[in-house]
Amino acid sequence: MTGQRLSKMAVCVAVISKENYPLYIQTIPTEDDLKFHYTVHTSLDVVEEKINNVGKTTNDLRELYLGLLYPTEDYKVYGYVTNTKIKFVVVVESSNTALRDNEIRTMFRKLHNAYTDMVCNPFYTPGDRITSRVFEKVVNGMMLQDS
Amino acid sequence: MEGLTLSEAEQKLYSELFGTCDVDHTGRVSGTRASELFLASQLPHDTLQQITELCGATRLGHFGRSQFYIALKLIAAVQNGLPVRLDSLNTGGDMPLPRFVHIKGTEQDKKRMQFANAGVSHHMSMEADHYTSPDKPHHPILERQTTHPGVLPPPPSSRGHVRSGSSGNPPHILHSRQHVVSEAASNNLPLQATATSPQDSYSSSPYNTSPPTTSPPSQRRSTDRHHSGPAATAAATAKRSLFDNRMEVQWTGQYGAAAQAAGVNTADGWVEFSSSPASQPRSLGPGPGGAPTDSEDESDPWTITQEQRDYYTAQFKTMQPDLHGLIQGTTAREFFQRSKLPIAQLSRIWDMSDVNQDGALSLEEFFAAFHLVVARRNGYDLPETLPQALMPKSTQPATEEDPFAGAPPMAGGGTPPVPATAPQTQAAPQPAPQAPPQPAPQAPPQPTPQAAPQAPPQPTQQPTQQPTGAQGGSKSADENWATFDENSSSPSPVVQSPANFDFAAVHPDPASKIIQPVPVRMSPEGQTYSDYRPRTFSEPIPTDVVNLRRERSGTSPSKHPKSGDTAEFTPGKIAPPPPSSRSKSAKSSGKHPAPQPLAPPPAVPPRHVSPATKGPKVVQQNSEQAMPISPTPKTTPNNVVNFITAEAAVPAEGLKHSRTMSLDSKAGSAFRTKWTFRRSVSFQPEVPLATDTPPTPPPRPHDQTRDKAEDTPVEPPTKPVKKKAPTPPPVRPRNRHRSGEDSQKSELRQEEPSTNDRRRHVSAPATRVPPIPPPPVRRKREDIQAAIRAHKERNTVLSRTNSELQGDLAEATEERVTLELQLQKLKPFGVTGL
After folding, report:
1. In this complex, which of B347, B470, B509 lies closest to A68 when CB atoms are compared?
2. Is B727 within 8 Å of B667 (Cβ atoms)?
3. What are the chain B neighbours of A110 within 8 Å (beta carbons)?
């Protein structure tokens, strides 16, 4: 496991609905889930701030990728919000310096795609907790590099 | 009842049998029925008698459930050679299930057997994991099924059976196997038909649950089946197919009577489904198409038989008449919800079958989904990924995040052959009635999936493109930085498309260090130092440019009507009228102190040259910016000359001027222009009148410095442009040194350099970090361009300053002349007076 740590992409992935309640939170099993839940929760404020600010400054298309929301000592939190105000939050380790911004963007793109695919499923009601295994597979794929 | 431990298999089998026998739903099995069943076990009557007594039925006069179970277990024990004693019950957990041999003569037994089997197998168990029967009982089933797999008979592993579906199989199987062997062909058909029939019935029936109604239909069906050959009555569920036609025939007669009740009892949902007229197609197909299909079925339980396919097609048409079209998600949702499967499972089925992820089902996708639902209803567990056999023929290789692990893009290629051949083979033997519809559905499904896949490929491609786009985007984003700075000050980066958020131009990480291109409104001039500080430039060259700009801005704003004006050097950002520019410059200067400590990289040397060359332009720009007021062409040349001279004389000066302007190359040139204005303004007042043109440069720096100083405090919120400011400052100090001006200048110089250096040092590390990602080459280019712009600005500023000074000079001269005149006038008096 330690060997994998460095290659890990994300430590925690969360999907928040537009009403700011969680639709999906997944953390790597070895970590304390609650801590990440809290981190994601606090990052919501930053997300809101960013999307509100962008709205003020530019009336045109708002950027989906919010970028680094805030760095903590051990982790960095990245955010992404869709046009339907669905927020994706990804927490990565600060020690994972090899993780480039581009890779984070790729990660979010994948998440977004998986989410839209899931929404296409008529049996999924937007606003429900996400139980799609396909989606989980995508998330797991980005949480562990080797998966 | 004695402690009776039953294994899962036993439990299921026993309950099935009990259900079979207890047709009256009374909870008890009469002695007669029980005896019939027991007789089927081929045990001697005496043994059976003993068993009956042991279980307590004799006492009760009937077989309650527990008694029944005990009896069954005893039978099993006896069959295995154990003595007939209650102790046998608890001998071992691996006691095989009791075997009941079907006795032809005993119709009731047959029925019961069938029911037992049927009910068991067909019990609609929604949830898998119920059944964990040992493998043993399954083997027979498997064996049986191997002969005619494909059809969905009781799930081989029938894990999902709530009731011991499979448990009911063993006894049944033993029996059926014999028949199977003897009548493989016919059995195949029945099996297939059976398998399909449940599906058909299931699908066709609106999922109603009216057992009674089913019996007659099932009876009818069985009759039909019988006629058709396989006679796999739906009601009986797949199991029934196991029995040969003879049995069915017999059954038919009795089935109607007893079967109904029992069948209904066990195959609740099934019965209904089967009753539906949907069975008709089944009856048509099964016979002829049975054999060929069987071969295919054997290979893969997931293969859709032709009969099933036809049925599915019919169902598809009810929702979407166009076989090439798609069933929308909502419609499909309602349809599949009728299957009463839990939404979670339906969701999974959808995930698997909607290959192209378009939210709708094409015919092929519909087949897959329907088949999966049927399988699930039959107790099959849902696979993790779509089975090969169910993959749409022309499947486009799903999306890149292919959930069908087992079905990579090639799956489409691999699958088509199988299903393609299957339908074809099926189609061949198919009788005429089906022929026409088959080819039609066959053809359409293929084209449809192809059409559908075409759509998916596009979305699939899009995702693939997105990554590439993202890649490209990111690179372009970097480049955009430069452009951003130069062109637009819009904070929002270029968003090429919603999907391509890769290069959202906004790079959070570097953002902290690398200034957003935002044009630097460097107000800078006055405050060289302050400017320095805030500018956290990462680029050396820009600083030079900034310096230039600062100079210009310093000079221009004030009142440089002269120089022509060429706002063009800042393409997009021609400074607005002086006042605003002034404010802007003030702002910029103010900003300088605020922003991060950009390290004004040295890169000074080149600067020196540029200002000179840009002199003329700068002058023009300066003038223009300074004031629309009075473009003084005449002064322009002067300024130009002066400027040039000044520049030539003290190239460093110019640089110094621009020092405060740490405009980043990326920053809009407008900033530079503003600086220019600023510069000119600030310079003028402070320029000593006595200074000649040559000397003007020296004082200018001072002024500039002061201006900058003034400006800096004014505008704290410097934009990122400010960051660039630091770069110029370093240049300037150096220049100052070189120029070796007067004390002030030297002071300033010293201050600047030190400050700049300080700032530089401070900002250096900061800037170092961010620049890493962007390619250095590009930066240099940008830097050079920025430097050029900065120089131009500087030139403008200088020229303006020059003109101002000249004006002052002229005034001073006039005054002097006046005073002299006065003096002369007075003198004579004095002299003459004397």
Report:
1. B509
2. no
3. 401
Query: In this predicted complex, what is the ipTM?
Result: 0.76
Query: Is-contact B515 B721, C-beta < 8 A?
Result: yes
Residues B527, B585 contacting (CB under 8 angstroms): no
For A6-146, the fitting CATH number among 3.40.50.300, 3.30.450.70, 3.40.50.720, 3.40.50.970 is 3.30.450.70
Chain A residues close to B357, C-beta within 8 Å: 117, 120
Pairing outcome for strands B28-30 and A12-16: unpaired
Choose the mutation target among B357, B362, B402, B500 for the interface with A, i.e. most A CBs under 10 Å.
B357
Name the residue facing A65 among B328, B359, B504 (closest C-beta).
B504
Which of A14-23, B146-155, B646-655 is predicted most confidently?
Answer: A14-23
Chain B positions touching A79 (Cβ under 8 A) are: none
User: To which H or E segment does residue B335 belong?
Assistant: helix B329-337
B580 vs B572: CA distance, rounded Å: 16
Token pair of B302 as six digits: 């997931």
Whole-angstrom CA distances from B557 to B353, B569, B583, B586, B611 are 70, 16, 9, 10, 19
**Cα(B573)–Cα(B559) distance, rounded to whole angstroms?**
19
* Residue of B372, B374, B376, B366 lying closest to B317 (CA atoms): B366
CA distance A27 to chain B (A): 20
What Å distances lie between residue B578 and B559, B560, B569, CA to CA? 8, 9, 16
B557, β-bridge pairs: B677
Domain definitions of chain A by residue range:
6-146
User: Over B641-656, what HEC string results?
Assistant: HHHHHHHHHCHHHHHH
What HEC string does B305-334 produce?
A: CHHHHHHHHHHHHHHCCCCCCCEEHHHHHH
Q: What is the pLDDT of residue B390?
A: 77
Longest dimension (CA), chain B: 173
Report the alpha-carbon distance of residue B138 to residue B128 in Å, rounded.
16
> CB atoms < 10 A from the CB of A3, how many?
7
Amino acid sitting at position B319? M
- Best residue of A65, A85, A118, A132 to probe chain B, by most B CBs closer than 10 Å: A65
Q: Between chains, do B333 and A122 touch, taking CB under 8 Å as contact? A: yes
Rounded Cα–Cα distance for residues B327 and B330 (Å): 8
Q: Count of alpha carbons within 13 Å of B294, Cβ hemisphere only?
A: 23
Q: Per residue in B38-65, pLDDT tens?
A: 777 777 778 777 777 777 766 667 777 7
pLDDT for the residue numbered B69: 77
Closest CA to B658 of B639, B643, B645: B643
User: Tell me: the pLDDT tens digits for B176-221?
Assistant: 444 444 444 444 444 444 444 444 444 444 444 444 444 444 444 4
Q: What is the pLDDT of residue A15?
A: 92
Amino acid at B613: T
Mutate to test the interface with B, among A96, A106, A117 (most CBs of B within 10 A): A117
| SS3 assignment, position B22 | coil
Structure tokens at B517: 């291109």
pLDDT at B254 over 50: no
Give Cα B350 distance to the centre of its chain.
17
Nearest CB to B357: which of A108, A117, A123? A117
B507 touches chain A (CB under 8 A): yes
Contact A123 B350 (CB under 8 A): yes
Contact A64 B491 (CB under 8 A): no
d(CA B455, nearest CA chain A) in Å: 14
- Which of A62, A80, A123 is nearest residue B346 as measured by Cβ atoms? A123
pLDDT for B517 equals: 60
Are B504 and A64 within 8 A, CB to CB? yes
Indicate the SS3 state at residue B299.
helix
